Amino acid sequence: MTDLNKNARDLIEYYCSMEVAPEYALLVKGFWGCGKSHLVEDVISKMKSTNSDLKFLRVSLYGIGDITDIEAKFFEQLNPILSSKKMMFAGQIAKGILKGALKIDLDGDGKADASANISVPEINLAKYLTDTKHCILVFDDLERCSMDIQVILGYINYFVEKDGYKVVLIADESKLIAFSNSNPESQIKYQKIKEKLIGKTIEVKPDVEGVFDYFVKNLISLANQKALAKYKAVIISTFIHSGYNNLRSLRKCFLDLELWFSKLDADIRDKEELMEHFLTLFIAVSMEVHAGSLLTNNVGKFFGYDYQRNDNSEKEVNPDAKNKGNLQDKYPIDFYDSIIGISIWKEFFENSCTNFVQINAEFRTSKYFAFEQTPNWKKLWYFYNLDDHEFTKLQALVITEFNNREYQNLCVLKHVAGMFLRQSQYELLNKTPQDIVNDVEAYLYDIKKLNLFEITDDQLESLNGFGSYQGLGYTCREHPDFQLISKCINDYVINANEKITQVDSVKLIQIMNSDPKQFILFFEWSDKQKHYKNKPILQFIKPDEFLNAFLNLPNETKRQFIPIIKDRLNQVLGKDHELYPEFEWFKLFKEQLEGHLKTASKSISTIILEFVIQQISENIDFIERRLTHDTLS
Q1: 125 band by pLDDT with thresholds 50, 70 and 90
Q2: Are 170 and 142 in contact (CB under 8 A)?
Q3: For burial by CB atoms within 10 Å, which of 363, 383, 529, 584 has the most?
Q4: What is the DSSP letter of 170?
Q5: Could you count the other beta carbons within 10 Å of the beta carbon of residue 180?
Q6: pLDDT (tens digit, 9 = 90+) per residue, 205-256?
Q7: What pLDDT, in 10s, does the model give residues 518-527?
């Protein structure tokens, strides 16, 4: 394997090994995240192992706003024991006899620069390192220093010119130049100081192949190294296609992949085509998220859509990548096939949530596992990959299943409808789009009559959230007739859910009277039982009926309901919000409470009820002000 940065390594090693004081600094430059800091550290590590006389002091200038911060870092490295004793710090620092007296001409104009007066080091390194020939100072993140560039370079120049130290600077020089270009005077001064201080410059290029091996060895557990290493080609290829030469982002990918490869079942990790597909998706999404081109709350939309770059990103990206169109166009993969559910992708990148029991199960439903076990509709989804006779056979099976009303999962029904529309477009199905719409309406009527529907929270999200189900994008989803079919299904779900919620609202009153603890759990998220954490239900209960049951609750339960009120009302962002009907309901419930308190005797219970009224009032007032503001805007 060719080392892309062999010249850079050789120059750094040569500079640090010079027997005479070079009287200039070496600048190691490169884009942010290209691996320049890692390369310098690697060279230093190898040099120290072969030459124990060499002493390196490394300081990151990231966020440094004062010279004393740098000198404190020097002191910590020179005196690892004493540095922990703050009282002894002042006694170890030379008081800078020359400060204010020594004038240094930094920019070569024949005049002493005033900025040099505040750049004379106060720490006497010679007191600790008398052998300047073998001492190298390394200053990293120069472009991220909060100090004026002339001040920090003047400070560094003192070590080079007056003390004879070797200095290695690490920086993204493009950022320094961009900053100085915004001010013509600053630009001239920067260039002159650079000419005086920096004698050699070498650029580091992102060596993704070399770094891949390093990441596998140092970031991946021994048990997973072999499994991940065999996918080197696809990971590197996707990284290159991203257009971001940022090895730090790739490093984050490896840290995440260590988790995934530790939790995925062995037979899944070893299925090469599946893993190549998954890793292409994973690296692509990760790189876009880390670059700021894809916001985490939009990860779901990324799959299958023409998703444009996030123009408000403040993160640093390769300028060449900004000229791309749709983000997905950069990668050689079909994002319609996300393998695992899009909700899983979204939860991982937005909230770092992983349910590997579900993830492993969904991997096994992909096309890469035993085809016999795959449902016919899913086999038909990949119709481009089918031979003619296979397509004809599968299409007939799916039509029969559709006619027999075998699809009780509405997301599957939506998939089948989309495939039928596509086949109609290609004249592979003897039906018009209107025929297919009519067929779906008849299907919904029949399963409603037979009560053969199945609706879960995950399916609701898949029906309306991301345009996909079980990792497969809905076929023909941009087609007007598909939008009409989607509306039919959604209307069906709304009506069905409303009936279910009405039944549950009756149960809620019963629970309030029999099991107060279960009443509170009714409004808290759970993956083990049905809940109404983010779903409306109270508007189906008469306020006076709810009040009667509420008054009989223990005071502790009444108090526990107060934060639930706040949580539910805080979610109401507008009149079209799902919980808006409860906003109107709470107004009526508040009137019922106020009416009750007018005749109730003072007690602990009435004090709690006053707190309930206060919570409702505060939130209602806030929502009404927000709605008024939105209307005026």
Answers
A1: low
A2: yes
A3: 363
A4: E
A5: 19
A6: 878 887 888 889 889 999 999 999 999 999 999 999 998 888 889 999 999 9
A7: 999 989 887 6
With residue 27 as reference, give the H or E element that holds it. strand 25-29
Nearest Cα to 282, choosing from 186, 373, 348, 357? 348
Q: Which two tokens stand for residue 362?
A: 């969904």
Start-to-end CA span in the chain (Å): 61
- pLDDT tens track for 87-122: 344 444 433 333 333 343 434 445 544 443 444 555
3-class state of residue 34 by DSSP: coil
pTM: predicted TM-score of the whole model, two decimal places: 0.58
CA distance 593 to 605: 12
Read off the amino acid at residue 370: A
- DSSP characters for 599-620? HSPP-HHHHHHHHHHHHHHHHH
User: 348: phi > 0 → left, psi -120 to 50 → alpha, else beta; which?
Assistant: alpha
Q: Contact, 477 vs 342, CB < 8 A? A: no
The H or E element containing residue 518 is: helix 516-521
- Residue linked to tokens 């840290």: 255
Pairing of strands 472-473, 468-469: antiparallel
Name the helix (H) or strand (E) containing 55.
strand 55-60
Question: Coil, strand or helix: which one is 537?
Answer: coil
The CB-based long-range contact list for 426-434 (8 Å cut-off, 24+ gap) reads 428/391, 428/395, 429/395, 433/479, 433/481, 434/481
Helix (H, G, I), strand (E, B) or coil at 199: strand
> Structure tokens of 313?
């990103």
Average pLDDT over residues 533-553: 92
CA gap 367, 277 in Å, rounded:
11
Nearest to 93 by CA among 127, 119, 64: 127
Task: Tell me the Ramachandran region of residue 487: left when phi exceeds 0, alpha when psi lies from -120 to 50, beta otherwise.
Answer: alpha
Rounded to whole angstroms, the Cα distance separating 290 from 283 reads: 10
Flag the least confident range among 408-412, 505-509, 547-551, 588-592. Answer: 408-412
**Which amino acid is it at 384?**
Y
Two structure tokens written together for 101: 């007296």
pLDDT, tens only, 131-176: 566 789 999 988 888 888 888 888 888 888 888 889 999 988 877 7
Q: What is the DSSP string of 101-143?
A: T----SSSSSS--GGGGG-S-SS-GGGT---GGGEEEEEE-GG
Total Cβ atoms within 10 A of residue 253: 22
Q: How far is CA 592 from CA 519, 547, 597, 612, in A?
A: 20, 7, 9, 12
For residue 465, the tally of other CB atoms under 10 A from its CB is 15
Identify any residues that bridge with 58 across adjacent strands, giving them in sequence order. 138
Report in angstroms the alpha-carbon separations of 382 from 361, 366, 385, 390, 474: 20, 11, 6, 11, 12
Cα–Cα nearest to 586, from 602, 601, 564, 607 = 564
Q: Check the CA dihedral 438-441-447-449 and report its sign.
A: negative
| Secondary structure, 3-state, 288-305 | HHHHCCCCHHHHHHHCCC
